[in-house]
């Protein structure tokens, strides 16, 4: 049980946490879809409510350095756990730097497995240095080590990014990597890219939003079905020419081969490493490799392989069974301690972010704590620039109903809009997406008042706040060859807001802006609003009680 606060009994009604995914506070309004949006509710909140800035990137959320942007996993982990753990990106980099990854049983089984079969080791993963799901340097280190340990053949299945890195940057990764593979190959070692495609088109679906993506990835990587090219650089160039305006994340799948023969199908006896460290978009393809009674699509052929993930992606489901680096052991989350203290909890989002407010929130666990209720609003399966409002209205409906039920002491939701539409690089759509969230807030807040509650309105990292690549010196948008602004699809390094919406305390409650204030301070703040002391492990509360 959390201890009761002696100085404050807690607010009479529920405490609501609203995460506006991808809503950062930019240094300049140039290129900010948030600044361009008409958002009277948020404008009023910033003008009239206590509000501060929180760090949401870099070491404040467990990333290796302050040059690393934040992301949903590390952001929701930090919010939910009230603590900062070294995250996958940092853990894998550390395990490679000190060599412990090669000593681990999983790596040794992978190498032994490959050698015992046809000698083929496959790597599948996101092919960039975005450091959100993966890092190409980790892949490079594994290829070098595989050669040193006597693996004969390496085949890479490269998911093109353009979402955590500039939108048409694929060749900046592909060309040097294909050169590196050519250089490291010799008569005893043959390393090549074997297949690939845009990450939003194959393999990296999440939260079961669209299994067809995973099926398309399986056909490409495992079965080697699809259009063939002589090299990945050639594939990217040809596909771009054929699909003008298509950015890397949406490029169609391709197979490397000649005369109808793919160079790297996945066969019995091969070893496979899925080298993304982040779990949400790794779980479905992992299930396809591991589950004997898999029924999400027809695999046609199920090769018997030795499979490992970079990390274990779900601790409750133990998925995958074999993993190269142990994930952060996230303990003592607010979900767990509120449950132990009898605080009922409601969590809601649409499919695209549903796991963010459940699985990431609870430290990458898929199981519920007692007293938790989850509601998923099914996401549309469309390019989100075509529906920038996404399911904001339906999430507002669900939150309003849950609030009115009076059953929950704390409620949380995530509005995907600023992030998912921000990732498309479409400025006008991103502007609309922020306006949709504003409308949803306008509907939810009066119900919170009516229930005697308060809200903390925040974000997990920036995205819609910078929709153009800005010149580092002039801070003006970079231009494409045709004079248009170069769209930015990735997250930003900007801080995020924390707004306290409170019409019940009569001005008694405020927020402290501290030097280190970050997402990991939210859990303790929520506990105080509920009338509890924070858990000893949690970072300080930012609540001021006057
Ligand atoms: O997976 C994605 O969509 C992006 O790589 C990161 O976005 P998220 O961290 O907001 O989910
Ligand atoms: Mn996010
Ligand atoms: Mn995002």
TrEMBL record:
Q: What is its EC number?
A: 5.4.2.12
Domain Metalloenzyme, first and last residues per copy: 14-533
Q: Does the keyword Transport apply?
A: no
Can you say what this protein is called?
2,3-bisphosphoglycerate-independent phosphoglycerate mutase
Report if keyword Transport is assigned. Answer: no
Its lineage opens with:
Bacteria, Pseudomonadati, Pseudomonadota, Betaproteobacteria, Rhodocyclales
Q: Which UniProt keywords apply?
A: Glycolysis, Isomerase, Manganese, Metal-binding
Question: What InterPro entries does the entry give?
Answer: Alkaline_phosphatase_core_sf, BPG-indep_PGM_N, Metalloenzyme, PGAM_B_sf, Pgm_bpd_ind
Q: Which SUPFAM superfamilies match?
A: 2,3-Bisphosphoglycerate-independent phosphoglycerate mutase, substrate-binding domain (SSF64158), Alkaline phosphatase-like (SSF53649)
Which class of enzymes does this protein belong to? isomerase
User: Which pathway does this chain act in?
Assistant: Carbohydrate degradation; glycolysis; pyruvate from D-glyceraldehyde 3-phosphate: step 3/5
Query: What protein family is recorded?
Result: Belongs to the BPG-independent phosphoglycerate mutase family.
Tell me what reaction this enzyme catalyses: (2R)-2-phosphoglycerate = (2R)-3-phosphoglycerate
Domain named BPG-independent PGAM N-terminal: residues: 94-314
Q: Which cofactor does it need?
A: Mn(2+)
UniProt cross-references to NCBIfam families, sorted A to Z: pgm_bpd_ind
């Amino acid at each position: 049980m959390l201890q009761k606060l002696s100085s404050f009994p807690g607010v009479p009604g529920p405490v609501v946490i609203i995460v506006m995914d991808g809503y950062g506070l930019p240094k300049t309004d140039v290129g900010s879809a948030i600044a361009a949006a008409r958002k009277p509710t948020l404008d009023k909140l910033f003008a009239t409510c206590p509000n501060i800035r929180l760090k949401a990137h870099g070491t404040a959320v467990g990333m290796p350095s302050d040059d690393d942007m934040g992301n949903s996993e590390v952001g929701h982990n930090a919010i939910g756990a009230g603590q900062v753990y070294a995250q996958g990106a940092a853990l894998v980099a550390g395990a490679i730097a000190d060599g412990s990854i090669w000593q681990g049983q999983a790596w040794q089984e992978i190498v032994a497995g490959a050698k015992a079969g046809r000698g083929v080791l496959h790597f599948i993963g996101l092919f960039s240095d975005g450091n959100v799901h993966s890092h190409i340097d980790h892949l490079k280190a594994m290829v070098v080590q595989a050669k040193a340990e006597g693996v004969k053949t390496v085949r890479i299945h490269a998911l093109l990014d353009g979402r955590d890195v500039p939108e048409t940057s694929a060749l900046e990764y592909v060309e040097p990597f294909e050169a590196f593979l050519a250089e490291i190959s010799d008569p005893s070692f043959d390393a090549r890219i074997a297949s690939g495609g845009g990450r939003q088109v194959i393999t990296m679906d999440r939260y079961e939003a669209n299994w067809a993506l995973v099926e398309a990835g399986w056909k490409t990587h495992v079965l080697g079905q699809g259009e063939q090219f002589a090299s990945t650089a050639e594939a990217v160039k040809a596909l771009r020419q054929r699909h003008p305006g298509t950015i890397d994340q949406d490029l169609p799948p391709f197979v490397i081969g000649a005369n109808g023969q793919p160079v790297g199908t996945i066969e019995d006896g091969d070893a496979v490493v899925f080298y993304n460290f982040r779990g949400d978009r790794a779980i479905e393809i992992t299930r396809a490799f591991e589950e004997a009674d898999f029924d999400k699509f027809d695999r046609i052929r199920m090769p018997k392989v030795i499979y490992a993930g970079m990390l274990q992606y779900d601790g409750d489901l133990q998925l995958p069974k074999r993993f190269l680096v142990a994930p952060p052991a996230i303990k003592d989350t607010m979900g767990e301690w509120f449950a132990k203290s009898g605080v009922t909890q409601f969590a809601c989002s649409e499919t695209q972010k549903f796991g963010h407010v459940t699985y990431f929130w609870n430290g990458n666990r898929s199981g519920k704590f007692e007293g938790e209720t989850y509601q998923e609003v099914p996401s549309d399966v469309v390019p989100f620039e075509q529906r920038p409002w996404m399911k904001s209205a339906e999430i507002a409906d669900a939150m309003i109903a849950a609030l009115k039920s009076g059953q929950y002491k704390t409620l949380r939701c995530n509005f995907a809009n600023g992030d998912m539409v921000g990732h498309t690089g479409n400025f006008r759509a991103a502007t609309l997406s922020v306006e949709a969230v504003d409308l949803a807030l306008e509907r939810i807040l009066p119900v919170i008042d009516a229930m005697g509650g308060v809200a903390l309105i925040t974000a997990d990292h920036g995205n819609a706040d910078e929709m153009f690549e800005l010149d580092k010196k002039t801070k003006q948008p970079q231009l494409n060859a045709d004079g248009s602004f170069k769209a930015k699809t990735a997250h930003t390094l900007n801080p995020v807001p924390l707004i306290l919406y409170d019409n019940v305390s009569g001005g008694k409650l405020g927020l402290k802006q501290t030097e280190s204030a970050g997402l990991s301070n939210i859990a303790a703040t929520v506990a105080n609003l509920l009338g509890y002391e924070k858990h000893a492990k949690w970072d300080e509360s930012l609540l001021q009680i006057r």
